[in-house]
Write a structure and sequence with these properties.
seven-stranded mixed beta sheet; 2 domains; single chain; alpha/beta; Aspartate Aminotransferase, domain 1; about 15% strand; Aspartate Aminotransferase, domain 2; about 40% helix; four-stranded antiparallel beta sheet
Length: about 400
């Protein structure tokens, strides 16, 4: 009798920072000019160049590099005028920085139900758009799952609701050929280590609206140096805003920008690699009784840097035993249905700074939701072993 195979790779180990990025970082370190506005005469900062390149990558008119994706969301909410007591619609299934950004400006999250395919429930959105009085939707493309953006934008247009897109998990993705983040009035992205380009922490805000971007730049702490931005509105747009917009500092620095520029240039190739791993996992878990895979809309061009599956109607005790058995074989699963939040797997009922709300459909989905990262340090044969272990343990725990 042979021992069960064990998975030995790390789910949190990322690829090394590219050599070109390390070389660029060394030049910044040698200069000593890490602050984005600390530049030599006639020098263009790394951060300003990155913003220009990110705007071109996404197709946005303007881009701002900031300290984190969470900061980007808070700045976006402030830039569209969200304030104390305002209601903001958002996904019931997302990560804590999303409702945290809403709470940070004194606003009130109104959570929307989740479908079996992990996207925002558009029927529930339509109802809450009509009933809540909210004028903004902070839409999370949670775990890279993109809903029917055509229908969502139609619902929001009917109710005069501005859409801010949280694209932390969809940098490099698209809906029906249009890059993720190009539907709403603002998009927010993250460059935290576990996202699609890695600066440890960092993020972007993009928009085509000149006044919104001017507000965001002033909010980020431009110290009236906004003319040093390249992917920004002209100086006259700032004139009526610069004395009334508070400084809520959250700039990106030149060191992180230098690290990100080569990674951004390489992102299309990396997206293809993630899709290869994701699709191999889909094949490995296909047609497995008692496990359900999410269904992707053919209009969705996703990245696939993490993988989710559902264990429908499994009792909690059985799921806990399954998770522990997988862990004993080296497979780290995150379970969104656990009774207490663990690491990033908090649920809407864990965010007690928001009013208590009841989302029965979301509860049913999260009760059996499993999540695991697919870092690019994994090889295709690693995915085959992962899938084999998961198949073994599903069968064993549902025998």
């Amino acid at each position: 009798m042979t021992d069960k195979p064990i998975f030995t790779r790390s789910f949190t180990q990322q690829e090394p920072i590219p050599a070109a990025a390390m070389d660029a970082a060394m030049l910044v370190l040698q200069s000593g000019r890490l602050h984005r506005y600390n530049t030599a005469p006639d020098e263009i900062s790394e951060t300003a160049l990155l913003e220009e390149e990110f705007a071109a990558f996404t197709g946005a008119t303007y881009a701002l590099a900031v300290a984190s994706g969470g900061y980007a969301m808070g700045a976006a909410l402030r830039a569209v005028g969200v304030g104390q007591g305002d209601k903001v619609l958002s996904n019931g299934f997302t990560l804590a920085p999303v409702p945290g950004a809403i709470a940070s400006v004194g606003a009130v999250p109104v959570f929307v139900e989740t479908t079996d395919n992990l996207t925002i429930d558009l029927d529930d959105l339509a109802q809450k758009a009509a009933d809540s009085g909210a004028r903004v939707l902070l839409l999370s493309h949670m775990r890279g799952h993109i809903c029917d953006m055509d229908r969502l934008m139609a619902i929001c247009a009917t109710h005069d609701i501005a859409v801010i897109e949280d694209c932390a998990h969809t940098m490099g993705a698209a809906w029906d050929g249009r890059p993720s983040g190009r539907h709403g009035v603002i998009a927010c992205y993250s460059t935290q280590t576990y996202k699609h380009i890695n600066s440890g922490e960092g993020g972007f805000l993009t928009t085509d609206d000149a006044e919104i971007m001017a507000r965001a730049i002033l909010l980020s702490g431009s110290y009236m140096l906004y003319t040093r931005h390249r992917a920004a509105p002209p100086p006259e747009v700032f004139e009526n805003l610069r004395f009334e917009t508070p400084n809520v500092s959250g700039r990106m620095d030149n060191l992180r920008a230098a690290i990100l520029r080569p990674q951004l240039a390489d992102l299309p190739r990396q997206v293809k690699r993630w899709r290869t791993l994701y699709e191999r996992m889909e094949v490995g878990l296909a047609n497995l009784p008692h496990l359900r895979l999410t269904q992707r809309d053919p209009r969705e061009d996703y990245v696939g840097s993490s993988f989710q599956f559902l264990l429908p109607q499994w009792p909690s005790a059985r799921i806990m035993a399954f998770v522990q058995a997988c862990l004993s074989r080296g497979v780290e699963l995150k379970w969104f249905g656990a009774p207490e939040p663990v690491a990033f797997t908090s649920r809407y009922d864990s965010w007690r700074y928001a009013p208590a709300q009841h989302l029965p459909r979301t509860d049913a989905v999260l009760a059996g939701l499993m999540d695991l990262r697919l870092p690019l340090t994994f090889l295709p044969e690693d995915i085959d072993l992962l899938a084999a272990i998961l198949r073994d343990e599903v069968i064993a725990h549902h025998a």
